[in-house]
Design brief:
seven-stranded mixed beta sheet, rod-shaped, 7 helices
């Protein structure tokens, strides 16, 4: 996953709906994607990696379930070839190429289309890393499109190797649920990492004042806003899937989707808790900075208070009058110094007795 970068939409301005233009990060994979095909059933499992979209053949109704995973969606021509092979709507392909898409779920006569976001938290840069995941569920197949090469679905692939497991005896609906559940579960990992970062930040603030900490607070706050922007719609996606009236999602899968929905609620509650915690940390930092400023101003005020009477004395004896009594007195200079020292000592003693210092 790459850190978020500005995504330009200017190239799509004025184009008709369904125009295939990649809108994403500059360093995204632009070469041939990695296409992995897994075909499985209760007693059958086969996996292969294809070099081109032309190696794929239109899927025919069979008892087997086919999972096609595509890593890298930066090439519009490849997505166009996928659309022609599997009769995918141009608007659907346009959403896949738009990697800044809001999580959503749509239905057609032959498939279900959903968009989700995967996240990681970089503890060094205090930054959220993101990647878009698109799922297309059909009668006997599931196609997943990922923005870049590499995903977090290896655990699911390992479970698919087990004969007569829940995966092997279920359809693409259960596989789609498992992928969505994996994405949502990773939100907890990201939030735990952010929680640890907040604990460290709070400890650093309590240990001493550092102007750099305010920048870290603002950076984490910005990342939390970014995270909430893409996690909040996931709850709507799961709710839509849970109540969808389509044969592609049988009733047996709905309890699992309800469980994912509960997980999204927990994620949002945790995120809101961390936002409140971060607001408290920011208030703590500002309070410490304000107290530090008050201490500095107090010291400066005390110093000024001590020197005010001394300045008055020097001001009086700085006047150029000829007949000042002490000017011709032999011990006048030393007496004035003694009076000034006594006044300064008395002022310091007064301040200490008042516990201002």
């Amino acid at each position: 996953m790459e850190p978020p970068r500005p995504i330009k939409r200017s190239e799509k301005a004025g184009l008709p709906p369904g125009s295939l233009v990649y809108v994403g990060r500059a360093k995204a994979v632009s070469g041939p994607p990695r296409i992995t095909v897994i075909e499985y059933g209760p007693d059958h499992f086969a996996e292969q990696t294809l070099q081109a979209v032309t190696d794929l053949h239109p899927l025919k109704p069979t008892p087997m379930v086919t999972w096609i995973n595509v890593d890298g969606v930066a090439n519009p021509q490849i997505l166009k070839a996928f659309g022609e092979t599997f009769s995918l709507h141009p608007l659907l392909l346009e959403d896949i190429l738009n990697t800044d898409q809001r999580p959503k779920c749509e239905f057609t006569e032959t498939n279900i289309y959903a968009i989700l976001k995967m996240f990681e938290f970089d503890t060094v840069k205090q930054q959220i890393l993101t990647e878009q995941v698109s799922l297309v569920v059909g009668e006997n197949y599931l196609i997943t499109f990922l923005e870049e090469v590499g995903d977090e679905f290896d655990a699911i692939r390992e479970r698919l190797h087990i004969n007569h497991s829940k995966f092997r005896t279920s359809g693409p609906d259960y596989l789609a649920y498992s992928l969505i559940d994996t994405v949502v579960d990773r939100y907890f990992i990201v939030l735990e990492t952010m929680g640890e970062a907040l604990d460290i930040l709070e400890a650093q603030i309590e240990s001493g004042y550092d102007p750099k900490l305010l920048k870290r607070i603002h950076r984490i706050k910005r990342e939390m806003i970014f995270l909430r922007k893409y996690i909040w719609p996931v709850r709507e996606v799961v709710t839509t899937l849970q109540h969808a009236d389509t044969p592609l999602l049988p009733d047996v899968i709905r309890p699992y989707l309800r469980d994912v929905y509960e997980h999204t609620i927990q994620v949002m509650d945790t995120l809101d808790t961390y936002r409140d915690l971060l607001a408290g940390i920011q208030d703590l930092y500002l309070s410490i900075a304000s107290n530090r400023l008050n201490e500095i101003m107090k010291i400066l005020t005390i110093i000024s208070t001590i020197f005010i009477p001394l300045t008055f004395i020097t001001g009086v004896y700085g006047m150029n009058f000829l007949y000042m009594p002490e000017l011709s007195w032999r011990w006048g200079y030393f007496t004035v110094w003694l009076v000034m020292l006594l006044i300064a000592g008395g002022m310091i003693l007064f301040v200490r007795r008042k516990q201002w210092l």
